[in-house]
Amino acid sequence: MTGGTGSTVRGTCNRSRRAVEGSILVAPSLEAALYEAIVTARAVICGTGGSTGHMQSLCRGRGIPVLRVDRADLDHLVGEVTLDLDSQSVLIGADQDLAAPDAEAGNPSVEDLGSACAVIADLQDIRTINESGPNAKRVDCFFIREEFLCLAAGLRPLDALDGGPAAIAEYGLAVADRLVAFAEALLPDQRLVLRLLDLRSDHAAGVTELAPVAVEPNPELGLHGARWLLGSPAYRAALHTVLGSLRERLGEDAGRVHLSIPFLNDAEEFSRLREFLELPADVPLSAFIETPAAVHATPAICAAGAAEIFVGVKDLVQFYLAADRSNHLVADSYRTRHPAVLDGVRRVVESARAAGTPVRVFSLGTDLAHYLDHLPTPDGYMMCTAELRQVILERF
């Protein structure tokens, strides 16, 4: 489901659900509760899920390969194994000797990325990019989801937000602590964009101990993103604590931390949320375009004051094509290059450019060359850390 930086990976199977450094994690499915086990793994083998699911995307950012096998075969995976990523197979036993293929030529270069944006999961990803040589300066933006920040910091956001004023303030200060560390790792002219909390109920259930979590028949289309933020005064209070702490600790550099609205449908939601969150006028607020409704509303969202537009291709695909990004049974229908998807992305880019609003398009590494050939030029492309680093290092 996701590749790595090589063609083979060897290691010992870990079925414990606990973090075991350098192991091959084996699990029926990937979920938020497995975060520590995932990020310490050399590779992951699972029995279900799609290539752009949230935890799979975390693996892509870290360069952790993920291979899906039949769930009935998971029980056979014990001891030492070798993943052959080219043939998409698992070889049992330690004595495997597989030759890596030559690297393909003709890949897109770093110049093609424009003002590149790295999609990160934690502080390590910023350091990984900024230690990648001279081309690191072409990355002017780091984009992190608040829920990934929480997973890396061991925070339980719904428990905190349901715990009263002291717990809410403590949560806000903990988020600010992480953002300050991120900001201090930036190079000159780089900035950080925080995608506000977008914790779906099915993911929340795995990282919540005390607060009630709704059981929804279809969490992907449920109460999350902008629609959840609009109903949470507790989150508004936590966000004000975050912003106040950033101003106190970073001074003028607090302006290098921007905010972005997730799962947005239209300009009315954008304006209502800005007002509801009571954001100071000098805090940039961008919009994440990942639904067909938001594609249609992009001109109005720009006119409503969006500081920047981010195009979330992975979610656009599933909503345009009615193909769940986490369901491998419909993987053949989930097509990141489908004409309808590309038409939607094209509309967003053209609308944003016409409005003078910066626009960035997310791309999987395998899609970048195709997007460069078939889409109007955005201000920059967004890529997960490991894939972006490969492009940065290509010429050295």
Automatic annotation (TrEMBL):
This protein's record includes keyword Lipoprotein: no
Keywords assigned by UniProt, alphabetized: Kinase, Magnesium, Metal-binding, Transferase
Domain PEP-utilising enzyme mobile span(s) in chain numbering: 21-72
UniProt xrefs under Pfam families: PEP-utilizers, PEP-utilizers_C
Ranges for domain PEP-utilising enzyme C-terminal: 188-361
Cofactor(s) this protein requires: Mg(2+)
Coiled coil start-end: none
UniProt-listed InterPro entries: PEP-util_enz_mobile_dom (IPR008279), PEP-utilizing_PTS_enzyme (IPR050499), PEP_util_C (IPR000121), Phosphohistidine_dom_sf (IPR036637), Pyrv/PenolPyrv_kinase-like_dom (IPR015813), Pyrv_kinase-like_dom_sf (IPR040442)
GO MF assignments: kinase activity
Alphabetical list of PANTHER family matching this protein: PHOSPHOENOLPYRUVATE-PROTEIN PHOSPHOTRANSFERASE
Similarity field: Belongs to the PEP-utilizing enzyme family.
Entry protein name: Phosphoenolpyruvate-protein kinase (PTS system EI component)
Native source species: Kitasatospora paracochleata
